[in-house]
Design goal:
binds iron/sulfur cluster, single chain, alpha/beta, Rossmann fold, globular, 3 domains, 11 strands, six-stranded mixed sheet
């Protein structure tokens, strides 16, 4: 557990906390959308430093966690083929599919490789023209542009033995789904700064207006989180619901036009299933018709695979903010990072992994006081 003196600027952190305390008059429930923000919050004990009235609910923004079991099973099927080199970022290898994971496929002789960029996979395809090379393209608006660019490049260079297994998802429809849930307690959002650095903030004002929720674009450092919370609480106390950018050092209103143009060229919006949550309309991307020949699902005819999620894993409720990880019966007992039942216990951005890693093993976390400097 980290303490406030370990923050980058402890005095500023204390001032921000004092301003939050001075502002808040009643209970508020805020959702941080991104799993990276969740890890910052739990690692630095920010939820324990905040006044009791401010509850942070962990959101669905962990790319590995929301990739449906069905897609994992498709990856396992493709990776098992003798003619395939299956490339992925390392965090997908331990995500459990039905009965095994990608490490298991590798153990059985499958050619599963960890790469650090989709362009590494494209290079492998160039060097191995007699093999089929597949890259596992998962994640949010942050990882989609480089994957789109790689497919664009494959087409341009005429590399036909490369394909993408696509499971990209979009944040705004997930916020919509959370707000439409009858069990929703969320009253405001800390939006994911890196997503907005690509997509800009243009998709949020309509959401904020329709659901009457403040949305504050927030970064990932502890001080970013505190500033995001402060701005959100100010809006809630005033009865406002606007979009604010608290991460201006990285986010412009229009986002990254070049990245957005690449997304528009290569992908088209589609309905997507989210692990443990179900299908959310218009919440993902797939390859557009022009690039369909690079779609691994079609190339390897795995689009018929259907899978049922295991009932004992409650990651769907965790991802929707309905359950804290330590409230799951399996947490820390049958489900640990070494024996994960769900992706939220595996991923470096998963809420269950954060609670386990930073020893939130008990029930309700104890609050800690920060010394005031005002
Ligand atoms: S603790 Fe394990 S079983 Fe429970 S929700 Fe998290 S990943 Fe699923």
């Amino acid at each position: 557990m980290k303490y406030i003196d370990e923050f980058q600027d402890p005095d500023l952190a204390r001032r921000l906390l004092d301003r939050i305390r001075a502002t808040v008059t009643r209970p508020w429930a805020l959702m941080e959308v991104c799993g990276g923000q969740t890890h910052t919050i739990i690692r630095h004990g920010i939820d324990q430093l905040l006044p009791d009235e401010v509850e942070l609910i962990h959101g669905p923004g962990c790319p590995v966690c929301v990739t449906p079991l069905e897609v994992i099973d498709k990856a396992l099927e493709i990776a098992s083929r003798p003619d395939v080199v299956f490339c992925s970022f390392g965090d997908m290898l331990r995500v459990p599919g039905t009965g095994r994971d990608l490490f298991g496929v590798r153990g059985e002789g499958g050619d599963v490789r960890v790469v650090y960029s989709p362009l590494d996979a494209l290079r492998i395809a160039q060097q191995n023209p007699d093999r089929q090379v597949v890259f596992f393209g998962i994640g949010f608006e942050t990882t989609a542009p480089p994957n789109a660019m790689t497919v664009h490049q494959a087409r341009k260079l005429g590399i036909r033995n490369f394909s993408l297994l696509v499971s990209h998802v979009r944040v705004p429809p997930a916020i919509e789904a959370i707000m439409n849930s009858p069990d929703c307690r969320v009253q405001a959002f800390l939006a994911a700064g890196h997503v907005c650095s690509v997509m800009g903030t243009g998709e949020y004002p309509e959401l904020a207006e329709r659901h009457r929720v403040p949305i504050v674009v927030t970064g990932f450092e502890p001080l970013d989180i505190l500033e995001g919370v402060r701005r959100t609480v100010v809006q809630l106390e005033r009865g406002e619901h606007t979009v604010e950018n608290a991460y201006a050092r990285a986010v412009r209103e229009e986002g990254n036009p070049a990245a957005r143009a690449m997304l528009d060229d290569v992908f088209e919006v589609t309905d997507r299933a989210w692990r443990g949550i179900g299908v959310i309309p218009s919440s993902g991307w797939r390859l557009s018709e022009r690039y369909r020949e690079f779609d691994a699902e079609h190339r390897f005819s795995v689009d018929g695979i259907r899978t049922v999620e295991p009932a004992e894993c409650r990651a769907g409720e965790v991802l929707q903010g309905l359950l804290k990880p330590h409230e799951c019966e399996a947490f820390g007992t049958v489900c640990t990072p070494r024996t994960p039942l769900g992706a939220t216990m595996v991923s470096s951005e998963g809420a269950c992994a954060a609670y386990y890693l930073y020893r939130r093993l008990g029930a309700a976390p104890a609050r800690r006081e920060a010394t005031s400097v005002v």
